[in-house]
Amino acid sequence: MERKPSLKSIIRPYKPTDKSAIVSLFRFGILEHVYPAFFKAMSHPDHIGVTLSVSVAGFVLGGSSYFQAVLFGGAWACLVYFCCHEVYGGYLRRKLEAEMADVQVNFSDKQASGFWVAEAEVNGKRKLVGLLAVVKSADAPALEVFQLAVSFPQRSKGLGTRLVETAVEFCKEQGLSRVIVEISSPQTAAISLFRKLGFTVTSVNSSTHANHLVSKLARIDVIRMEKHL
Question: Into how many domains does the chain fold?
Answer without folding.
Answer: 2
